[in-house]
Specification:
The structure holds two protein chains of two kinds. By secondary structure, chain A is an alpha+beta fold. Chain A is built from 17 helices and 28 strands. Chain A has three domains: 282 residues, Beta-Lactamase, CATH 3.30.450; 223 residues, Phosphatase 2c, domain 1; 128 residues, Histidine kinase-like ATPase, C-terminal domain (Heat Shock Protein 90). In chain A, strands 1, 2, 3, 4, 5, 6 and 7 form a seven-stranded antiparallel β-sheet that branches. In chain A, β5 and β6 form a beta hairpin. Chain B is of the alpha/beta class. Chain B has a five-stranded mixed β-sheet. In chain B, a hairpin with a 2-residue loop joins β1 and β2. The mean pLDDT of chain B is 88. The chains are: A alpha+beta, B alpha/beta. Chains A and B meet through α15, α16 and α17 of A and α2 and α3 of B.
Chain lengths: 778, 97
């Protein structure tokens, strides 16, 4: 998948790639900006919003403070006045309470309530209660005897008996017309001259009034308020059901909101702050709570507002910024695309020209008016490249011409060399000769030759001219022609090489040739040979090929008037002589190692090789040894085989097409020997089978068959010899001659026929030759 | 070797002259179209020699004719040639006159 995308991207034009790269960079920038804005603007906006939220909070705090202060100061005024009175001054008390009431009433709808409790005994069980009420401008005052304070007002127990202000928990004051929740400020007092506290002054505060005030403030603000008493009870809460009943601690515990406890503690310690609540029961969403204590008290006010209202404006801002950025990005891309297209156009023009150059059209004009930038520099480089290329091409043309000349010279040399070599191998009943040459690329100096010097002598030559090319080829032609013309009947090899040497020396120049020449007497197998500095041949006598001990002498064409010593040996029937040039034993592989005589002998002595096969084996093995290293010298080989056969033998190529010739020879031979007709036809059948068998199976490539007859002990014998693979017809099984046509095998009849038609079949293997002798009684 | 083929409906006569040897035998087998042939006659009156390659041709022809549900006949076979057929046991599986 990734690879596919990458490949696709690679195929896109440069303009596209640049645009994409820049877009990605800009996009990353936009994302980064988004994150940066979010992270950095959040606290700023939040503090701003908090500031906004704090204002109504402060209003409420002030309101509460004022109301509380009013109530407290009214209670203090009563307490301080009572300090001057005695418990009997009831009228004064009424007056005092009335004036205190008036300070609390701001408009006619307001109601106020105050009491003075006078204890009659120390354990505060019995006493008197003076209560004063101001409602709709009407003032009421009454005194009541109380027998058990605690029974009547159980919370009295919590009031500390010391000179301090105590605020009661909210409760429903029944004395008001409407049952309205109130909280009461309580202060213990002493009558004049008293040592202990004589009672309590109580001034209550109507929470409904407070709630109305707060509701007014809420109208213009973004959130809702709560107010907690020092005990943490909600005096005011957005959820009316919680008012007067639930404490902040209970909610904190129930909803697992430790931050609420923190707020409570802060308020207790006169600190303000803010907390966040992930899920609020009031808003069904995350909320911010800002809180502040009422100064010099343990009361607290909280302002609850939805978090959205804090973050909302920030979101809007972000969306606006990013939309703008994306729009800007699109515009940027468009402009970039235009710029890149304009900038890369000259590149396209250049590439078109480059293609034309590549096709060899150097006339293609380079684009004009190039910008003076990198592309302009490239255009200049193109100009230079074209000029250099044109120069270079001229040089190459010249060089190629020279090379061609050199090459054709070599080709000519090789043609001369090849044309000088005999390719048709003669067949004669007494000898076989095969030769093979592969020319190296740069050398053309090797040659082989074979020819009759007279009816009874055949000469073979192998030679290697020093030097290469046409001079070597011409020298070789000359040497070869000289040898042929000099080697006449009755001329000794010493004379031949002596004359040839002098002729070559007279020709001058610094070339010379190594050569080995042998002449075979076909009548008796006597072999004369002479060596002129050439590699000694290998001779195959009784036990395979061996290196011959040959006098080396000196090369031909070196020094004049040399006497080359001639040697001789007696060849036996089937003996072979293998001649070669140093292209064989001095062939080199890539490591620079030589092929060597040992390996050559090993290959020659591989079993079951016909004379021609031997040459192919050596050629293939040398190629394998060289393993791709360039052939450094011509590789030339020649093999001479002596076959001492009776006169009148037939030597013929082992090929099926010669069957008629073979049958004609046999028919003719039998007629000469007066063989009876019946035996003749039997021999004919056997001959056809044997010859076609040899022709089809004996050789991998070239090969000869020799056929000759003799009469011995009342039988006519016909012998077939070949150098092919060993094949003994005696080992063949007799085919099944019964059964229906379908059951009969189509092959295997030939050898059976041979055996049936003749009186005797003998086979032997000798010097890698098959000798098959068939006979019929006459 | 030379030959001449006369075809008449589902009957064919091939007259052969000379030697049937390794060279010429395959040609002889290809000379006749055996398709739907019911009777195949080889006239060997002018044949001096039949070698194993020739024997193979006649064995092959016999097999084809058997498969066709037809018959093969060798007529005018010279004694020297007939001897060869006898040696390889073809006289048992072929109609030779």
């Amino acid at each position: 998948m990734f690879t596919a995308v990458r490949n696709w991207y690679r195929r896109q034009p440069l303009t596209f790639k640049l645009s994409v790269s820049i877009s990605i960079c800009v996009f990353i920038g936009v994302v980064w900006l988004w994150i940066f804005l979010t992270e950095h603007s959040r606290p700023i906006i939040r503090s701003h919003m908090e500031g906004l939220a704090r204002r109504p909070l402060q209003d409420v705090v002030k309101n509460l403070e004022a109301t509380g202060w009013e109530t407290e100061s009214a209670a203090f005024t009563i307490k301080n006045t009572l300090k001057e009175l005695s418990s009997t001054d009831v009228e004064m008390m009424r007056h005092l309470l009335h004036s205190a009431m008036q300070t609390l009433i701001h408009d006619e709808s307001d109601a106020a309530h105050a009491w003075v409790y006078v204890f009659e005994n120390e354990d505060v069980t019995t006493g008197k209660m003076y209560s004063a009420t101001m409602n709709d401008g009407n003032f009421q005052f009454k005194s009541t005897k109380i027998t058990d304070f605690y029974k009547l007002y159980p919370w009295f127990k919590a009031v500390p008996k010391e000179e301090a202000v105590f605020w009661s928990e909210p409760y429903i004051a029944e004395s008001f017309d409407e049952k309205s929740p109130v909280i009461t400020c309580l202060i213990p007092f002493k009558f004049v001259g008293s040592e202990k506290f004589d009672g309590l002054v109580a001034v209550s505060m109507d929470l409904n009034v407070l709630r109305k005030d707060i509701a007014k403030i809420e109208k213009n603000s973004i959130g809702r308020f709560w107010v907690i008493s020092p005990q943490g009870r909600f005096i005011i809460h957005p959820d009316v059901n919680l008012q007067n009943i639930t404490t902040i601690q209970e909610i904190a515990e129930k909803n697992k909101l430790p931050q609420l406890m923190k707020a409570y503690e802060d308020i207790q310690n006169q600190r303000d702050g803010s907390i966040e609540i992930p899920v609020s029961t009031v808003y069904d969403s995350a909320v911010m709570v800002l809180y502040a204590p009422i100064p010099d008290s343990k009361w607290g006010v909280g302002f609850v507002c939805s978090k959205k209202q804090f973050v909302g404006p920030l979101r809007d801002l972000q969306v606006k910024i990013v939309s703008f950025m994306l729009l800007w990005l699109a515009g940027l891309l468009f402009i970039l695309h235009l710029i890149f297209r304009r900038s890369t156009k000259p590149l396209y023009d250049l590439s078109k020209v480059a293609i034309q150059y590549g096709e060899g059209n150097f006339e293609a004009t380079l684009p004009e008016n190039m910008p003076n930038d990198e592309i302009g520099a490239m255009n200049d480089a193109f100009h230079k490249m074209r000029d250099n290329l044109l120069q270079h091409i001229e040089l190459v043309k010249k060089a190629a011409g020279e090379k061609q000349r050199a090459k054709s010279e070599l080709e000519i040399a090789q043609k001369i060399q090849q044309s000088a070599l005999p390719v048709e191998f003669p067949f004669h009943e007494s000898f076989e000769v095969y030769a093979y040459m592969t020319a190296a690329k740069k050398v053309g100096g090797d040659f082989y030759d074979f020819f009759y010097t007279d009816d009874n002598h055949v000469a073979v030559v192998i030679a290697d001219v020093s030097g290469k090319g046409i001079p070597a080829a011409l020298y070789m032609m000359n040497a070869k022609a000289l040898i042929r013309s000099t080697a006449k009947s009755g001329v000794s090899l010493t004379e031949v090489f002596g004359k040839v040497n002098n002729e070559l020396c007279r020709g001058g120049g610094n070339l010379f040739v190594t050569a080995f020449m042998a002449v075979l007497d076909l009548r008796n197998g006597e072999l004369h040979y002479v060596n002129a500095g050439h590699n000694p041949p290998c001779y195959h006598g009784k036990d395979g090929y061996k290196m011959m001990e040959v006098k080396r002498n000196i090369v031909l064409g070196g020094i004049e008037n040399i006497v080359f010593s001639e040697e001789k040996l007696q060849m036996q029937e089937g003996d072979r002589m293998f001649l070669y040039t140093d292209g064989v034993n001095e062939a080199q592989n890539k490591a620079g190692e030589f092929y060597g005589n040992e390996r050559m002998l090993e290959m020659l002595n591989r079993p079951l090789q016909s004379p021609y096969d031997v040459l192919l084996t050596i050629r293939n093995d040398v190629a394998e040894f060289a393993a791709g290293a360039e052939q450094s010298d011509d590789l030339t080989m020649l093999e001479l085989v002596y076959c001492a056969l009776p006169k009148g033998a037939l030597t013929i190529k082992a090929e099926v097409r010669f069957i008629d010739k073979v049958l004609a020879y046999v028919e003719d031979d039998m007629a000469k020997n007066n063989i009876p007709a019946k035996q003749q036809s039997r021999i004919m059948v056997a001959t056809e089978e044997i010859f076609s068998n040899i022709a089809q199976y004996a050789y991998h490539s070239h090969g000869l068959v020799r056929i000759y007859s003799y009469i011995d002990d009342g039988s006519y014998h016909l012998c077939f010899t070949d150098n092919g693979v060993a094949y003994n017809p005696q080992e063949r099984k007799t085919p099944d001659l019964t059964g229906s046509a379908e059951q009969r095998d189509i092959g295997g009849l030939g050898i059976y026929l041979v055996k049936e038609m003749t009186d005797n079949v003998e086979y032997k293997r000798d010097k890698e030759r098959n000798i098959l002798d068939i006979s019929v009684k006459i | 070797m030379e030959y001449k083929v006369e075809k008449n409906g589902d009957k064919a006569i091939c007259t052969v002259m000379g030697r049937i040897d390794t060279n010429s035998a395959p040609e002889l087998l290809e000379a006749v179209d055996f398709t739907d042939l019911k009777e195949m006659v080889y006239d060997l009156s002018d044949v001096d020699y039949v070698f194993s390659a020739g024997l193979r041709v006649f064995l092959q022809a016999q097999k084809i004719m058997n498969a066709n549900g037809g018959k093969l006949k060798l007529i005018n076979v010279q004694p020297s040639v007939k001897e060869i057929f006898e040696i390889v046991g073809f006289t048992n599986i072929m109609d030779i006159e």
